[in-house]
Amino acid sequence: MAKHAQQPQSAFDRELIGGALADSLKKLDPRSLWRNPVMFCVEIASVITLITFVMSLTGSNREPAWFTGAVSVWLWLTVIFSTFAEALAEGRGKARAASLRKARTDISAKLLAGPEFGSASTAVAASQLRKGDYILVEANDMIAGDGDVVAGAALVNESAVTGESAPVIRESGGDRSAVTGGTTVIANAIIVRITANPGETFLDRMICLIEGAKRRKTPNEIALEVLLIALTLVFLLVCANMSPLSIYSVKAAGHGTPVSLTILVALFVCLAPTTIAALLPAIGIAGMDRLFQKNVIALSGRAIEAAGDVNVLLLDKTGTITLGNREAVACVPLGGHSEQEVAEAALMASLSDETPEGRSIVALARQKYGFTRDAPPAGSEAIVFSADTRLSGINANGIQYRKGAADSAVAFVRSLGATSVPSDLGEIVDRIARGGATPLVVSRNEEIFGVVNLKDIVKGGIQERFLQLRSMGIKTVMITGDNPLTAAAIAAEAQVDDFLAQAKPEDKLRLIREYQEQGFMVAMTGDGTNDAPALAQADVAVAMNTGTQPAREAANIIDLDSNPTKLLDIVEVGKQILMTRGNLTTFSISNDIAKYFAIIPAALLSIYPQLGVLNVMHLASPYSAILSAVIFNAIIIPMLVPLALKGTRFRPMPAERLLIHNLLIYGVGGIIAPFVGIKAIDLVVGLLA
């Protein structure tokens, strides 16, 4: 089974950078840039300094032309670096979307008059299909749109969407009926009911989301943007008032020169939160891209953000916490029989059983007890498991071998004339159930021989993952249809915080609502139609790509690999996005402290010579100090682009420790870095000026 995982594209790829540079220049259009108000103000400031530079060349401005020209160039670079960061993040998505477009070709579909094989068909273009239409898809045909299989079963190649080359089975009924447009049937034929109009398919939504073209801002992102706009307005008012204040001060002091327009603009741009404003769009787009690298599609940015705030995880036991296939690990004899006799009876009852549990019993009988039979006797009758009898087995040579639930096995042997059952049967069954395993009672004719211990194997390393989540303050809840004894044992072994046994769809929905009423953010996984109500209620709902269409429509995140444990990775990516945004905001605001010591003394030194004491960096001249601050303000943006795209390293620790850790790195670091950077730039500017 070959898996083509999505490979992260390097941010320094030559072709990617070239495309991003071209797109960044297009984004300078004010009609596009106004959506980022802070950078829109910086662009206006750049235009003003360009005008002052022209005035300096003509002698209309007393400031040196080299100074106004250099300030103008670096302010324009500040805007370009901002649009470049967003274009680079979008470019990585566009490269991936290009491959998906190949699967979105307008193919021909066989439109049926009704949902039956043999119905009259008409060839139509895929773009003409609408919700509710029925199409016939045969071997080697490409599925023309999203839908549900309503008749038949087929092998489907979904590599165009999932990257998984191994074909999967799609069939009517059950939890594997959903098909995706752009995938190909490689064997058999199916009838599909279309569930999405053209332009609204899963593939269309994937392309738009990956490119970032229709990315909606998340609530936290909007709130942060409001804060940035408020700070920008405050600094704008401060700088606007500095001009009349400096004019008055010059008249009152009788010496010095008023603060020039170029210096005021430079001060405003350096104090405004340009760093985080420039990187904010890239952080959100890059977060969706990191999820796509894990073969996960977030249908909204809100879902990723909510994943970062999740504090309750609901996880199915089977396939998530356990491997999913129970394995026979021991035979427990009863009524004076030996383990060998129990193993032989269990083997005979399992020879025609193709389930994973049946195969594991055969394997145990061979490996531990030395039996070699691998096929049922000639002329035997296979007894298939059913929900009514809860038994399976074989009738061979006049002997009836059975295995199944304890009460069903007891009822069966009594129906054959048994007057008693082993006295310790109930005790053994309870003991196995308390150990987290499934007891399977084995009988031969009217006599119970013993019990097979079917162990539900907990996945390796899952306890460590739950420990990490617990350290982050996230509660884990296991959901299972097992009886409470078995559920409690598995929960203890896996070290989950709580469990819900014998869970029905309404139980899941009720549990989610109870947690939400207590103020928790809840995440869960699901793949069946009966999971759809709970998925729709959960704050973060992860649907398996192999699941039903109702489950996928109710969810806000789709796992293309259909791996329920991805929920843990999704939570980590969500927290990583929130951390990255918070850390870069802290760094951006902390940067302003050094700029106060650089620009304010330089701007007012001619009026108030006493401010020279604030020149703690010993910058060469007022012009050099201001230009150095502007240059640092510009170059810090591209230096932080890799961090915005990659995200802050996730550390599983309590929120309080995480806050202190990040404040020390990005808060204190944000204060120190500009002092070092501005001084280094000043030394270079002093040599060139």
Automatic annotation (TrEMBL):
UniProt KW keywords: ATP-binding, Cell membrane, Ion transport, Magnesium, Membrane, Metal-binding, Nucleotide-binding, Phosphoprotein, Potassium, Potassium transport, Translocase, Transmembrane, Transmembrane helix, Transport
Name of the protein in its database record: Potassium-transporting ATPase ATP-binding subunit
Keyword Translocase among UniProt keywords: yes
Binding site for ATP: D353, E357, F385, S386, A387, D388, T389, R390, L391, S392, K403
InterPro entries: ATPase_P-typ_cyto_dom_N, ATPase_P-typ_P_site, ATPase_P-typ_TM_dom_sf, ATPase_P-typ_transduc_dom_A_sf, ATPase_P-type_domA, HAD-like_sf, HAD_sf, P-type_ATPase_bsu_IA
Catalytic activities: K(+)(out) + ATP + H2O = K(+)(in) + ADP + phosphate + H(+)
Active site: D316 (4-aspartylphosphate intermediate)
